[in-house]
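Fold it.
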Amino acid sequence: MAQAMGHSRHLDPAVLAEISRLDLRARQVVLGYVSGLHKSPRKGYSVEFAEHREYVAGDDIRHLDWKLWGRADRLYIKQYEEETNLRCHLLLDISESMRFGTGPLNKFDYAATAAASIAYLLLRQRDAVGMRLFDDDLRGVVPLSSNWHSIHNILQMAEPIKPKRKTDFSVPLRDFADQSGRRSMVVILSDLFAPLETIERGLQLLRHRRHEVVLFHVLDETELTFPFEDNTKFVGLEEMPDLVAEPRSLRDGYLEVVNEFLAKVRRMCASMRIDYMTVSTGDRLDKTLAGFLAARGRVVRASTRRS
């Protein structure tokens, strides 16, 4: 899959940063991703046929059933197991720490572009998608819908956001779990700038409600590598103080703490059967989307077995 999608320059964060509007960035990502998939026609589709549905404008004509058209004189699309409807809530972190970035896109811009791209892909497959913003509380809602108008609501809600508050996982995820209704997929995009115990408590609430959870841990490339050399002023976010330091003396200790935190989060997610991915703002967007589609495929297959 990586080779098939590797030729699209629009998946590069440096190129996406040149596009100021979120909707244009997300469209470029999806177009580049899909054009890569077309080189391998069966990618994203199960070989097991499920059912027909009537053709609507915008459907991929590669999946038209021409034999059925010859008999019925109407156009129908072949649906496969991977295409069966999914309900997906996107939870996008808008806390102040998401403003940080040293590359073409800061963490929030990268996460928002990834979320909008996922929404485009889901709606393209006739799945239902909605979005909530959160920091220390839930801040906005686009209800679940498979209507194409939902993408405009998602983009309009995310585009003007300027992250400025603290992160809290336990309160917004508790409230979301109380409001979310029946079992769905929940995709969280966050830098997890919060105490581990509150993250764990929030995720447990979602799993207790039997939601399938995908967690994209979005970090700036420098947060993962700490490449700083000269005396540097680190500006505090989310009520943390500023710090002037000599980075080389801190690097080993910093990386040890970060890697230990990442390992704890991975183990925690594994214990709750949550799909977890560490994502760098320097990563191409195809990596993020491929991770999501892999998780989606697991949910669809599990749902098929349960039914």
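The two ends are 29 Å apart (CA to CA).
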